[in-house]
Amino acid sequence: xxxxxxxxxxxTVYRQGARVRxxxxxxxxxxxxxxxxxxxxxxxxxxxxxxxEAEGGADLxxxxxxxxxxxxxKGSLPEPPDEAEIRELERRIEKLDVERExxxxxxxxxxxxxxxxxxxxxxxxxxxxxxxxxxxxLESFVHDARTTRxxxxxxxxxxxxxxxxxxxxxxxxxxxxxxxxxxxxxxVTKTVVAKLSGSATRAVLALDYHVGGARWxxxxxxxxxxxATSAEIVQRALVCQQSxxxxxxxxxxxxxxxxxxxxxxxxxxxxxxxxxxxxxxxxRGFRPPPAGASQLYADYDRALQATxxxxxxxxxxxxxxxxxxxxxxxxxxQHPAYGGGMDPSMMAAMSSVGGAAPxxxxxxxxxxDEEADEMMAMTEMPPPSAKLMxxxxxxxxxxxxxxxxxxxxxxxxxxxxxxxxxxxxxxxxATIYTQLVxxxxxxxxxxxxxxxxxRRAQYxxxxxxxxxxxxxxxxxxxxxxxxxxxxxxxVALPRDAIDVGRASGAxxxxxxxxxxxxxxxxxxxxxxxxxxxKSACDVHYVVVPxxxxxxxxxxxIENPLFAPLLSGPAELxxxxxxxxTTSIDNVAxxxxxxxxxxxxxxxxxxxxxxxxxxxxxxxxxxTNELVHDIAVELVNNLGRDVRCEVRERIPWPDADAExxxxxxxxxxxxxRYDQEERGAPLVGGRSxxxxxxxxxxxxxxxxxxxxxYANNEIVGGNRREA
Amino acid sequence: xxxxxxxxxxDTSRTVVPVPVREVTLLEDRAxxxxxxxxxxxxxxxxxxxxxxxxxxxxVSLAGAIDGEAKVTDLRCRRAMRVWHEDQPEDIAxxxxxxxxHRRTLRHLSEDRTRLADRYEQISDIAMKSAExxxxxxAWGMVNQxxxxxxxxxxxxxxxxxxxxxxxxxxHQIDTxxxxxxAVLRRQAATTTTRRFVAWVEIDVHATAAGKLRLxxxxxxxxxxxxxxxxxxxxxxxxxxxxxxxxxxxxxxxxSDVELAFSTxxxxxxxxxxxxxDDRLTARRRSEQVEVEARQVRVQRxxxxxxxxxxxxxxxxxxxxxxxxxxxxxxxxxxxxDVPSDGRPTTVPVDAFEAPCEARLxxxxxxxxxxxxxxxxxxxxxxxxxxxxxxxxxxxxxVGWTETLFVAPGQRFSLSFGPDDAVRVTRTVQEASEVDHxxxxxxxxxxxxxxxxxxxxxxxxxxxxxxxxxxxxxxxRVALLExxxxxxxxxxDDGFVRWTLDLDPHGRATRQLAWSVAVAPGVEGL
Lengths: 722, 526
Fold this sequence. Notes:
The complex is a heterodimer.
Chain A: E1 2-3, E2 6-13, E3 18-26, E4 32-38, E5 48-55, E6 61-71, H1 83-111, H2 132-181, E7 188-197, E8 202-211, E9 215-224, E10 230-240, E11 247-255, E12 270-275, H3 298-310, H4 344-353, H5 371-378, H6 386-391, H7 394-397, H8 401-421, E13 436-438, E14 450-452, H9 455-462, H10 474-487, H11 500-503, E15 510-512, E16 517-519, E17 526-543, E18 551-558, E19 568-574, E20 577-584, E21 592-599, E22 603-616, E23 623-636, E24 642-649, E25 659-667, E26 671-672, E27 685-692, E28 696-709
Parallel strand pairs in A: 1-4, 2-11, 9-19, 17-24
Antiparallel strand pairs in A: 2-3, 3-8, 4-7, 5-8, 6-7, 9-10, 10-17, 11-15, 11-16, 13-14, 17-18, 18-21, 19-20, 22-23, 23-28, 24-27, 25-28, 26-27
Helix pairs in contact in A: 1-2
Chain B: E1 2-7, E2 15-16, E3 21-26, E4 31-41, E5 44-53, E6 63-66, E7 70-86, H1 89-139, H2 145-190, E8 192-207, E9 211-221, E10 224-235, E11 238-249, E12 255-263, E13 290-297, E14 304-305, E15 330-332, E16 337-339, E17 346-363, E18 370-378, E19 388-394, E20 397-404, E21 412-435, E22 442-454, E23 460-467, E24 469-471, E25 476-480, E26 490-491, E27 496-503, E28 508-519, E29 523-524
Parallel strand pairs in B: 2-5, 3-12, 10-19, 13-29, 14-21, 17-23
Antiparallel strand pairs in B: 1-7, 3-4, 4-9, 5-8, 6-9, 7-8, 10-11, 11-17, 12-15, 12-16, 17-18, 18-21, 19-20, 21-22, 22-28, 23-27, 25-28, 26-27
């Protein structure tokens, strides 16, 4: 099997999730190719490998692919230091500690030597002379002895410090060596193993796979020329992913569709409506599996049962138990005459020096793990005293490590068996025979049946470990990676951005980035450029004088794409100046995008109204005519002609109201305006579109008449204009 | 030295003859194994034995034959548990001695520790008592600094060395205990027993003359089966179809260098024909209520055999049988093959053919909003294609799995090569219901819209299928609403509505279907 390098070439981000295409060069071509370094989060069932180019044989075909785990081999592993050396050091330190403690004890013993009192005189006699000289001699003896001991103690302490330094060093090296030998979660990647057949010598393969959680949202920059005659639409996308691999220099495609998954062609059956009755059982396409094979096992079972009884049970070798008590490093003075106030715990410590049983409760406060129970069974330890904890290195007090390790191993393998022993619950996508294994005939419940190989075993099979320890649960590691990848779909979108799933309609579109882009796997939205398109731009002006005299500048830009511009935030620049951020709604292909550019100060608008009420009695019934006159004046102070839209509104009668509205004398003529594009439909809307020449003015006028019965009045007042 | 024992013991007086497996015929749930070899026989009764046959063999199926002037007079299968006692007596003895030695050392060390502790206690007592008494001596004028110094130094020196010695002993104890654990592990490893259930065939041959004769043994074993598996590769409008057989066996004997045959014959189909039951008719008064139901009816196409079976792929737990179209098929694999008894699949190629195909994109939006590449081809091979999974390969890469049913030679069949990534389909359904006030009929109208997008740069030709219901009763009328239905459609008697549509690169299209179901008053079930 050959390991080959691969690099990401193209990524398609869907509404949810992404499809990654890697390019793999294989030279020379071998039967089995392993492509390592893939993210753990990839969905195994979506992996496809195909041949793009083949040299020296067009018949190259990828026969099968399967996904496994991979750990890169390490070039050189640090050698662990000699265990015997560490142990030797620990023991030397321990013994020096003991010697120091002994010297302390001797010192204390000597120091406690009292200045002797003068002996009591004999009855009725004078006391002997004060033994000053003897006391002095005694004192000088004590002093000399203590000085020598103190000096000796100092040398020992220095030596201990030296040795401890060396020990720490060695232990660190041992720790490093063992960490380097352990495989960490970060090192595990997925690998795709592809089986090839054909006579090609060199080939380029494409590896496709799906990762969950990636997501995108559209965003734009609109750059208008200063004179607003042309525009540039910079299409950007906000992309977020946490698949575990950075996309660097990839060709990015963004799709509004959902990712495609492999499914088989469904078969449409006819729908018949008829009287309800019991339906006859339908025939199956496959023949039912043959029955009766279990009877063939009769002879086998009988013989197996009979012979199993004959075989004597194996006698396991029972290990003899050992019980070693560690001596205490400290020694307390035993004579009650000295020291005086000795607390009970110290008494206990003293009595244990001889080898009394320790109290198990004492361990709980010490922070030993649950293994303590096991350790207890093997080797009894002295109960801790304050001094012991300080001076005794823990290693020698521990039980024999080989035994402990063996027990742990047993425990772990038992757990593993339990998990993999049961019938796996995973259902395969299809009956893939190559993944099924026939069960043993000795297993009465499952023999003659094919069961899939479980995923853990499959993963472990492909894992190359080069003598390094794997103490992580592969399935949970993979699961975690998938969960992390999917978490990217819960990341909040930046302000104004709209999820692409909501932004697109019934049709689906793809948008390609013009240049390679980078998207890191960090679960943050990255803004990447897709492309810049030039477009024609048209500027006109809109004023709604009834509500506001300001004239608004509106840019109309044609959508330069074959696909719609999806809803999203747009940053607007005029010239090179940032104007504002607005959001745009879906714009159909070749449709027009309107963008408000703000108020144009150079165009002024004035609106004046007049109102009069006239009673007419020409007809049979007397009516009141409410005449409204509107006069709008537009002044263009710009050096060029402008096209300006003036929006107005006239009242309209309610369905049952006895009111008539008539438009009379509108100059120039206006048109109906429904305001649909703003999402606020209007019935009585009217609009003028006029051209205002440079440095000149235009006058617009309109008159409408509201007719009501003479004895009626309009709710809210007869005058409808300010 | 490893010891092999058999429970019950094997008869060692027989002559062992090597008769290897030569030919295996696999059935759907069992296999017929044939062994033969030339064996030397002597005149008179030959007591022969063939070792290591599959313990799963069915005793009654065991048959033996010998040619020439000889006769098999008796033939039986015997089974036993073979127990390997993997141990080296010298090793065990040595380790046992070692263990005993360590234990003795530990005992001695423990005694030494106690002795040392006692002695230390004594001496420290001396030191302490002396330290108590010296000041008294001094007070009484018994001053001998030299003696004090010497005595105390000596006492302390002894105490210290004793403590050091205690630790030396302790360390020795630890080392010994570890060595003991190590020895125990080795001791446990030295005595492993493995068991294997084995079988052998005892054959009594009566020969009239000595010579080399061909001995044949055959038997039936379970725990061996096969299933067909295929591979279809679509290249340039042609499909290369390879048929193969997947074999699993765990009979207890490895088959190496054997001829393989695969059969759909069933020896376990039963001996009794199935029973018929009466269809007794009774009549009752017609109820005013008409209860109707809509049911799905699979439409068979005589000229084209469909792809997947109903209900999708069968689950791995319940492997289906092999459909042979009613005609027992026996496929022979070329050459000789190895099938180890490990339960893992072994793929054996059987046959192959290449045929031109018609390919088109099929959209059945009601069931799956995807466009599927469907190919229709003819089985131009000499053998039928048996039902089984098909690995699909397009151009140069594996795309997925599908299934095929039984296809006879010369028969047309279809294979789906999976969804086309570039064509996207969205389907919406609007429903409206209205009751006519005059006649009481309820009209349920349905408007189905299919939106098609071509995301790729190539034009696509799509065949779209929708369906309307077909009524079998007069109380329910189904109508196609022509004015709201896209043109170019055709409706057949089964209610299938079909369009053919060309989608430009990056193009979009919509098709809609409107139909209604009018239900008479009093009809229930819709």
